[in-house]
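not sure who needs this but someone in the group chat was asking about Heterogeneous nuclear ribonucleoprotein L from Ceratitis capitata so here u go. i didnt clean anything up, its just raw.
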Amino acid sequence: TTTTSGTIGLISTPTNFCQFKEPPLLGPGAAFPPFGAAEFHPTTPENWKGATIHPTGLMKEPAVVPGRNAPVTFATQAQGQDIIPSLQGAVMMVYGLDHDTSNTDKLFNLVCLYGNVARIKFLKTKEGTAMVQMGDSVAVERCVQHLNNIPVGNGGKIQIAFSKQNFLSEVINPFLLPDHTPSFKEYTGSKNNRFLSPAQASKNRIQPPSKILHFFNTPPGLTEDQLIGIFNIKEVPATSVRLFPLKTERSSSGLIEFPNISQAVLAIMKCNHLPIEGKGTKFPFIMKLCFSSSKSMNGAWNNATNEGMIEKENEVEVKQDVYN
């Protein structure tokens, strides 16, 4: 018999079904918090503090500004679940790093050219080996394609391959590397990641390593000799520099050439995101480097327009975000 409660015998027929919904999928790089445009400084050649060819007082570590370049906590791992679905398959192994001089920041400076970087961990049991969690698997594919088996420094060579791990767990007490820096570092809060939005990602020129680098976001009063001096201090001497004509008083850009690809890769690792202080500015200029598509300095001017698109597009973004 049928009762008013909707029960037939001992079998109940529920009148309301629970609606189960699949959790929304996170797109590539969704773990990274949004950031504003890159900082530019209204500095003119007249008020910029110059330097000699060996400008020992030129480089300065940027101050930590809460909410802007302070560390940001990565999403926590739920028990029994992967840390973030969008980061599955986004971990790679890096072999062949120089044990005595390599660290997390130098490795970040290189791999950030091909995608967002979440975490980097050096292995204690395998010297010269690191694991890198990128923003997505596409970034790992780019690194494998462009950086695997490339020469670095004097006789070194690095190998890159996919890792079987889906993510890197946080290391609470990392051991120290030979240069006394931590062997683990979080980069999800780094403003130096270059693929934080589709618009920002579209500006990056994905290039294989070359002996000519494109530099930008440097002080507008910077001279070729001063720039060569900066790389000399970092022990990666350049052979020539070409400054692009200034398109704005906010910053300068150009090309810098090295004797070979291995030295150019080492220069990226040592000098990418190097703070350069400008007189009268609240924040230092963060010099940015990337591999150039120019095959020679003689043909560099033919590519000047394409190389300079990064600055031109950034100028549009930062009109409302200038720091004095």
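also Residues 1-30, 34-88, 308-324 have pLDDT under 50 and may be disordered. if thats useful
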